């Protein structure tokens, strides 16, 4: 909202307080100021001139050559095209060097051969409105050579206030409300409003008949006004409206706007001749009804919209915009002034639904004080009469509605105010602040009192003792409250489930980022429909938002993996190898309940395809398996129990998916990226990749039994190294063979490292050769050749049991 | 005794003398001839290796030396051998020292040659900063809490004193979750504040908690707006908690983040779940007289905060007459951007490894 500094001075004396001071005071006590800027700064550059002579241009009928006194001693010769220029006028002169709105720079020039040393300006050329029929005729009493701005008192500043910071303050939606705040802050009196002095003798059955048929209109005032003319507005009015960004139209429209911006109370003028003799009805719209608003748009109405009707015909969308049918035309002199109080939610819903946010709706939706309505009505009539003294109100004003005063009584304890603020303000200090804000005080005794909240603050903002704490605090200034340390017993946070999860996640992240050199992602929770389609999950139920940020982004991930898949191709395109992980949450819908929250880590390792002759473990799958095992072991868990996964997740190649279990609990899966999906994701052709993925359930890891770490005595006897190669049927798992080898060692196998996996003619079709470095070590003696020989003999027998053979060189 | 050809000749002479005096034999003559041959060598050829060889001649022919001379000749020959060996060792040591010196005076060194590549990974900056804040607060006895991203309308709005007709519901640009008719309505949480009431229901006052997490707003995305971003809620409930405590806690928070004293100011701000409510501005840590970060104002709007509204305490089952509290909502994404001078919020969740790898 724009606030004009000079407009404020109509309500409070701001001598010695600059616009920037006002901005600072408001910021610290009232609302957020977004900026302060000078209004029409070029008015400060334009000079008051006196047209001393005017002659016709020798070569152009419509041009005049003027001699103008601008207080420089010498007269300036200026060529002017305006029809109203004549000797004796006081005019606004832009001398050469001055820049006018639109970055129009005035220079010495020759016009049809005659030298011209500046420009005599119209109002439009100065940004003062649309008037361009001639030059601007200034009052004759102005002093030649003064700047126009100071001569007219037109220098102004615009203070821009963030509307959001006024959401709870309907009283601040006009200049008088802001001025009232400043008066309280600066300890200066608020000037009385002339209109308030005028008596108000409204009656329920006044000149204009009004029927309220809905509880959503709590007060409706209607006045019949006769003799008003849609003249041009006086300069002071145009200037103030322009400063706050309103375009002046004519006196009637301008005054109606002025009263809204002055007091914060919207109002509306109807052409009385266009209203039916049945008077005005306020009612809710009927299904299927429609009306044309002032902006010429035909609006379809809903039963939630409130209407002002003439007879039964809609003439205004209550609180939002007038109707075209009762628009005031220039030639009318019979008006009906409406000043009403409408229900905030009804107005807000209508304006939101129609996308029709007006100055009026913005104010009504804040919940206006019904007692503001008669004041606004009187204010408008008063201002109108000041310009057009023969205007009169016909008959008694109508004032109907079952409104109740919003003034209220709120009990307050002084000690509570001090305790809540942590500030040592005396009882008198507290009372002083409240009185400055126009709050009344009753029954002050025993450290408590009853605060009488005025109606303009009682609509919704101030209803509790806590609200009074804010009033005292903000005027006292929060900056004057001393800082305090929190006190209390210092105990470590409970080692509950949340703490354990956080610590586990940290360890997983550290292991992955710092040990395995993976890059951590934090991604969106929304997944694109296209990706779900590729994953074959399009039909799987997802938590879905009704209003997505973009087409196809309505679904919330059930698992973290899709988020990782979504960025795989882009990163692979930029780098030969990509190692990513994300720790996050997925949501699984649960009929009629809050969705189930799952905590997961998803990993991806993506590189150029492995070379044909690469070692068996030089590929993404083997590497990622190592990373996963490292993570799991670092948590103090066993990571050996892999087996083929029978129900592979949709991202996994189903033929090559392994699952990890700890006890009976499934902890996660590991697999190469599903090959069709790889292609769909663009990881083909030049970007053909060896991609392995893994998922680990944080929840499962958290629940898995931890192995306690115990010290193992260091070996006292030397290691004996022996290589074992077995040729085995393809379907025999490596884990079966290693288990067998360990059995054969009878407790002396201290280490096993697979170093070769071979398939080929030497071992035959459907068979594979596995070779291990085996470390044998006994805890009580040095092993002999004889021990090794016996061990190998046992391995040979076990190999036969597994359907294989021990390979000898 | 230092090595010299003269010394070698002297020893050779002392070896030969008793042999010449001894009864002649063919072998002895041959030995003498060999010794003479060494004696004849010019100085420059009489080096330690040759001397060692010369000492070997008598030592290898002891049996041809007549008994009475054997002891003297053997002793002298051994002296020669030791002299030669010592010289050889000294020579080797000199050579080794020279090599070390040459290595130290390396002429082929280029300090700017690139390093061997070391693989590295990275924690996401949001995670890194979250951890820092968690550590800061837990060190002061605060608890870290978590809450669901898909939240009920009750916790996200109603319990926070944001009634169904409240304009704040609309200004928050809420993502509404499709739910079957009659089921409780769900939203993507618009702030971390719903965890306030969840915390009140779970923890017994007094308590202090922070809640870092992801939040969602349906607003158009540009360099400074995202539909998904991170916040960190803070909540303290206790006896006689006041605005003064809030100010103290916020100053501590900023000291922790920026590592030095940062001036702050509180000014009125409106949020339905606090009363009084504030906007907290911090004196711009990047400039003294206005810069682009603070939009030339020298203040940075850092976080909304306030005293917990009595209705919110009640919604959490806490008696507002007994207990008071304060809450704040730190824009974690914004703080990360400030910390690292990130100019586009979209990088945070954009998933580009080139971004993450910088941290």
Oligomer: heterodimer
The whole-number mean of residue pLDDT values of chain A reads 92
Count the E strands of chain A.
41
Q: Count every beta strand of chain B, where a strand is a DSSP E run of 2 or more residues.
A: 10
Rg measurement of chain A, Å: 42 Å
Bulk shape of chain B: rod-shaped
Architecture overview:
The complex is a heterodimer of chains A (809) and B (359). In chain A, helix 11 packs across helix 13, helix 14 crosses helix 18 and helix 21 packs antiparallel against helix 22. Chain A is built from 22 helices and 41 strands. The model of chain A has no long low-confidence stretch (mean pLDDT 92). Chain A has a 7-stranded mixed beta sheet, sandwiched between helices. Chain A has 809 residues and is an alpha+beta fold. In chain A, a hairpin with a 3-residue loop joins strand 21 and strand 22. Chain B has 359 residues and is of the alpha+beta class. Chain B is 43% helix and 18% strand. Chain B has 13 helices and 10 strands. In chain B, the strands form 2 sheets. Chain B has a 7-stranded mixed beta sheet with strand order 1-5-6-10-9-8-7, with helices on both faces. Chain B has a 3-stranded antiparallel beta sheet with strand order 2-4-3. In chain B, a hairpin with an 8-residue loop joins strand 3 and strand 4. The longest helix of chain B is centred in the N-terminal third of the chain and has 38 residues. Chain B starts with a helix and ends with a helix. The mean pLDDT of chain B is 92. Chains A and B meet through helix 2, helix 8, helix 11, helix 13 and helix 14 of A and helix 5, strand 1, helix 7, strand 3 and strand 5 of B.
